[in-house]
Amino acid sequence: MKSLNLQIIISFLGLTSMLNGVFMLLAVPFSLYHNEAATTGILYAGLITIILGFCMWIFNRGAEKNLQKKEGYVIVTFGWLILSLTGTLPYILTGSIPDFTNAFFETISGYSTTGSSILNDIEAMPKGILFWRSATHWIGGMGIIVLTIAILPLLGIGGMQLFMAEAPGPSADKMHPRITETAKRLWFIYFSLTIVEFLLLKSAGMSWFDAINHAMATMSTGGFSTKNASVAYWNGMPMVQYIITIFMLIAGANFVMTYFAFKGKWQKVFNNEEFKWYFFGAIGLVVLLSFLILYFQDPNLQTSVNHPMPWGKTESAFRHGAFQVFAILTTTGFVTADYTMWNSFATMIIFSLFFIGGSAGSTSGGVKIVRHIVMIKSSVLELKKLLHPNAIIPVRYGGKAIQQTIVFNILSFFVLYMLIFILSSVLLTFLGLDFISAVGATTSSLGNVGPAFGSLSPVDNYSELSNTAKWFCAFLMLIGRLELFTVLILFTPYFWKKN
């Protein structure tokens, strides 16, 4: 493989920066409307980012357009870094988050759709900054959709080839037209669903500003809220929470399945193996968790299920159970209650969801359900092979045999994921966190969830972490968001060798 084409890399990063700057400028009207002093800082941040991106693009626009795998890995990883570095400018130039470490943490938490925050008083922040904070979710969420549908299969990352055959568009042998067509359709679906959720939340009683921010955070499975109490602020407005729950369910599903649903091809949706595991598995967990909340609720949280009507406690238990199952399963990270105060069994169920993640081809983080399906099937086959060692039995997914290389890729991913989880948890204890908080911070950051356990529970945040711990958690957010291999391969010496 030839050496890296730096010109095409810088050109792509320049385009990324320009688009990022344009999104920053969208926050200016919100700031102007509320007559905020932060308007100038947001404006300057957007212009600086656009100018920087334009210079990177204009001086490298004549680059050879043949993009190789090596350039793909570098562009994906450094694209997220460019977004995060330039994304700190609105926070810093407005003085909202003057410290660079904190600003970077908040920004990469946004773009990676993690939702971890260092802000102690969110409601005191300028409205323009809150909009920008939610916009980082929305940008990162759609970026992930295009990345996992269109780019990662080309790079052979993480078994993403499994759902590539489902993607709408021309035939598989016309990859570039397919990518363009797929990206356009997914952007349209993503944008349309965001608008629909915004209108529904507004009609359910949210202010227009809260509605647009929560719609962006929901569809991106990000979890940044405009309220200190997150969605628990609307515990007295059940319809708001039901709407967000439904859209978290949608956002956690493969967006290709959402496309088929838009086309009325419901049979394709419910015949999809991953969707069946995702939907019916989540429903089962909702029923179980609702039962635990209703009958074995921690006394400290009884006020959250009190209701004047006889059926009120049942409804409230179901609502909180459903909301938290989908919030954690889809790695959105919104909260309506402090799940660490529930009984141990319920809390353990929530903790296990941190390791599952949503569907492949969604905005969710985590391991992804499709990988769990393949790993379970592969393990069952190994048991069969103990009885029939000479039998050739392929792993099947969706009724079709999976290439052994994909199975190995998925198994390698999971082994690496768990190894990083263990080593990172140990390192965070060295950096000052207690055991439960270290495990929680690792699972949350690596799985892009947001709230965690211990001192990082839903009623706390990440502001008390040391700067070193914040940078390390930011690194975990990045590698978790980009499917591990995409980033970690850059740390291998053979990647940089000229072949």
Summarize the structure in short:
GO terms for molecular function: metal ion binding; potassium:chloride symporter activity. By secondary structure, the protein is mainly α.
From the structure above, extract its key features:
2 strands; globular; 20 helices
Strand content: under 5%
- Biggest sheet strand order reads 1-2
Helix content: 55-70%
Helices and strands, in order, run as HHHHHHHHHHHHHHHHEEHHHH
Please report the distance between the alpha carbons of the first and last residues.
Answer: 5 Å
* Tally of DSSP helical segments: 20
By secondary-structure content and strand pairing, the structural class works out as mainly alpha
Protein name: Potassium transporter
Family: Belongs to the TrkH potassium transport family.
GO molecular function, one term: potassium:chloride symporter activity
InterPro entries: Cat_transpt (IPR003445), TrkH (IPR004772)
What secondary-structure arrangement, pairings included, does this model have?
Layout: H1 6-25, H2 28-33, H3 38-58, H4 69-87, H5 89-94, H6 100-111, H7 127-155, H8 175-203, H9 208-219, H10 238-251, H11 255-262, H12 266-271, H13 273-296, H14 312-329, H15 344-353, H16 369-387, E1 396-397, E2 400-401, H17 404-430, H18 435-447, H19 467-481, H20 485-488
Antiparallel strand pairs: 1-2
Helix pairs in contact: 1-3, 1-4, 4-6, 4-7, 6-7, 6-19, 7-8, 7-9, 8-9, 8-10, 8-11, 9-10, 10-14, 13-14, 16-17, 17-18, 18-19
